[in-house]
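agent> Task received from the user: take the single chain below, predict its 3D structure, and emit C-alpha cells. No templates, no multimer pairing.
agent> Plan: (1) validate residues, (2) run structure prediction, (3) serialize to C-alpha cells, (4) report one or two observations.
agent> Step 1 OK, no nonstandard residues flagged.
tool_call: predict_structure(input=
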Amino acid sequence: MSGTQLPANLSPETVEEISERREEPEWLREARLDALEALETLDLPDVIQTPGRRWTNLEALDFEALVDPLDQADETERTSDEGIEVLTFTEALEEHPDLVESAFGSTIDPQENYLTALSAALFTTGTVVYVPEGVDAEDVTIRAEMNSRSLFSHTLVVTEKSSSVTILESIESGEGEARSASESSSGQSPRDAVDAESRYFSNLVEIDAGENSYVQYGSLQDLDEDTYSYTLKRADIDTYGTVNWIEGNLGSRLTRSDVESELNGDSAETKIVGAFFGHGGQHFDVNARVWHQAENTTADLVTRGVLDDQARSVYEGVQDVGRDAWNTSSYQRENTLMLSDESEADASPKLIINNHDTEASHSATVGQVDQEDLFYMTSRSVPPEQARNMLVEGFFVPVLEEIEVEEFRDDLEGLIADRLR
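)
tool_result: status=success, residues=421
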C-alpha cells in the first residue's frame, strides 16, 4: 500500500493534455497513463532507518501543493560535439523514434517507485544524447534553469560500440526569489516545511552504455533552498564499457539523490564520485549503488560531504556482487566533515557478496575539523576563519581530482568557495 495518495490535481486528462501538447506517439502516451495509474499502489523510495529514527521524511511532501503539472517551464541550453546528436526529447522522438522507444524505461522502470512514476507521467523537458559507433565526443553540456513551481525532466544517453562522451549537466533556479534555508516563516524545521514558496524538481537519467564505450556524466545541482529535489540516475554497462558519474549537490532544501550502475558485461567498470555541502537547515539523502552482474567488473565509490549550521546528511552505499560475478573489485569510501555541533550525519555502507572471488572493501567516517591542523595554521598567523576554509577546500580535493572536465571542476570549486564565504 502506498504511503502517498494520488494528488487531486492529477488525472488521466491532465496527462493526456501534456502528451497532446507535445504531439507524442501513442506508446509514450500509454506509458505516461500507466505510470499515473500505478501511483495509487506504489511506495515512496526506501530511506535509511536507525533505531528510533527515520532519517528522511518523504511522507511529509505534499505533492498536491508542490506539483502544478500543466505549468512547467525551463530554459535549457544544450551544446553538442561533432558526430553526435544532443536533442530535446521532442526532437529525438521525431528524428529517432525507434531509439527513444527502445531506450525509454530500459534502465529505470517508470513504475519502480512513487517518485519515478510521478516523473514518468508528468515530465515536460529532457534531453537525448546519441553517440554513434566509433565517435569520441567531449564538451557536451546541458544547462537547465527551472522557471516554475515544479519541473519534471527525463534524460536518455545511448552510446554505441567503441564510442565515448563526456557530459556536464546542471540545474539551478530561475524565476522567483530564493530564500535561505534559515528563513522559513512557518516555524517548522525548514527541511520539513512545505509552504507557498516551495518547489519540486525531478530528473531521471538513463544511460545505455554499449560495448567498449565510455561515458563520464557530471551533474551539478544548485537549486534554491525552497526546492525539494529528487534525482535517480542509472547506467546499464555492457562488455568492456565504462560509466563514471560525478555528482555535486549544494542546493535545495531536501535533496534525494540516487546514482547507480549495473555492470552487466564482462570487464565493465564504473566510478561514482559525489560531493555535497549543506548549511542552514538543508538535508541531503545521497546514495550510490553498484551491481556486479558479470565477471572481471570493477567499481569505485567515493563521496565527500561537509555540513554546517543545522544541516544533516544520510548516505547509503551498496556494493552487490552477484553469483556469476567472478574476479570482481569493489571499493567504497564516504567521509563527512561537520563544521557545527548542531549538524548531523549518518552513513550506511553495505557489502552484499554472493561470490567469494572478489576484492571488496568499504569505509565511512564522520568527524569535526581537525583541531591540531587548525591550531597549527592559526599559530602560523592564518586567521581562524581562513584556516577553516582552507581545510574544507583541502577536504574536497580528492573528489575534485577525479573530475576530468575542467569546466565542471571550476563550477564546483566556485560554488564551494561561495558557500564558505
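agent> Step 4: summary for the user.
Residues 12-420 form one domain.
agent> Done.
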